[in-house]
Specification:
By secondary structure, the chain is α+β, with helices and mostly antiparallel strands. It has helices at 4-7, 20-24, 54-58, 82-87, 93-103, 147-155, 166-176, 196-210, 254-259, 312-320, 332-337, 352-361, 364-372, 378-384, 388-398; strands spanning 30-34, 40-44, 73-79, 106-113, 119-124, 159-163, 183-188, 213-219, 232-239, 242-249, 283-287, 305-309, 325-330. The strands form three sheets. An eight-stranded mixed sheet has the order 5-4-6-7-11-12-3-13, sandwiched between helices. Strands 8-9-10 form a three-stranded antiparallel sheet, covered by helices on one side.
Length: 400
Amino acid sequence: MYGYNMINIIDESQCCGCGACSIVCPKECIQMVPKTLGHFFPKVKEDICIACGKCDQVCPMKQKKKKQNFKQIAYAAYAKEPEIRFAGSSGGMVGAFSLQLLRDNYIVYGAAFDSNLQLKCRKAAKESDLAILLKSKYLQSDLICQYKKIKDNLENGKKVLFVSTPCQAAALKGYLEKEYENLLTIDFFCHGVPSQQFFDQCIKIDSRRLGGTIKKYQFRAKKRWGGVTPHYFSAEVEVNKKRKKITKIYYKSSFYAVFQKYINFRESCYNCQFANADRLSDITVGDFHEIDRYIDGINRFDGISTVIINSEKGEELWKHCSKQIIQYPVDLKMLISDGICFNGGTKKPKNREEFVRDYNNKPFKELIDKYVGQQKYWKHAIYYSMPEFFRKQLKKYIGI
């Protein structure tokens, strides 16, 4: 049966979980169901399937990549407006691009948590809607609810900016079946994605530990003074019907700590076919943690981004927004050779299979205590309490 192998996934590394196959199916016979670590995979109702092959055609893992006939250009950059820079995870580039495009009557789509901390692709049609789309979210968002709406907007002549992972950008373009001049796409450096299910379980564990209920959660919270790592989180915790905001270093969050071990990603993330220089999006953005190796005088904890222009449309957007951006040209070949970007999928941890077995067989709290129990972070507590000069000297010796 044509398309049979695609929708009956045997090798989980061959599915990125985008769900495009389930949306394009004319018989609605494909469901996305949770499997390893809560990641979603397609399952077909074989008695309904008509073997039309549309699921194969739309799958980003099977699409033949079309190289863009454009010489990529790289920059280190950050938003000129301090509040936009502070609102982003790195240099605030997605915020800078989005604000300009909203003023140009674009609709912006990106990932945002809803009131139940479920991560979904959502839209911003005005500036006041934008804040929830900013900042990194280190889990897979649900794009299924937006494929058709994005296509309808494009068909109706609306201008759209879509911001997501490289695989979801490829999935959207496959679903659309043709290029749209009124569509701009931005992807970002992506280590890999844990599942919503795993995030939900961690939130429950941490809520109990905090004696309340976590109502809001934000990755990559920035400290205005005294930040020692790019990785803080903030949360709103409800205790006795009153809310308090906390901001802590990443390993105080069960989910964030596990994420930093790269151990709970989708299987496809460890051999990601989108984590190279052949980008389908117009612009790629990401952290620039190693900025002091290239440019002096920039505090990376204030936020600095790598920006790579991948297409003529991306270059036009870059020029259009140039007055809102502080920018430094950098050599893309050097960035790649130095391991800053486009170096393939994340290396699978040696204990990944053990982690999956433990997830399936141990109580969840026991799993968390085994892999990211707070007693394991005593070295980190000492390290992050030191001045930056000493941290740089010690980092290679203490394994942080």
